[in-house]
Fold this protein.
Amino acid sequence: MRARPRCLPFLSGILAVTAVTLTQGAAPDAGIAKVTIRTDGGTVRVELTAPALTLVGFAGDPGNAAQRDDLKLAAENLQSGDALVRFNTQARCVLESAKVDADPRIRKGTADLGASYRFGCALPGELHSAAIGLFVGFPALRQAHVHYTTAQG
């Protein structure tokens, strides 16, 4: 069965995020990314984490050239934050910074990759939606759990 995209409504219709449904039978965190979006005036901060196994297909140090290439490509995909998170054009948001953690080593029992982004929005009052483009660059990703915070809570 093919997963269908769906829209997850945000508090008071402020933001909307595209996600897909996790297929049955997967390990609890397999295929799941965690995304936190915080808005404060014209600044939007986005934090992303997902298991290395989901994003690059392995955890731990790359064991061969193919895994090193996959890790490099994943880091490049994560670096392009404005392609992974797109806000509605009326808010005129621009990626100001991106920080990528593309180290698949196991730390504290997990091997996660992640990124944090800061966007500046010229018209924050017009910020009404966001689309997550993670699913294109990371085909093993099946679902995004999104937590959002605005100035109103």
Summary: The mean pLDDT is 81. The first strand starts at residue 5 and ends at 9.
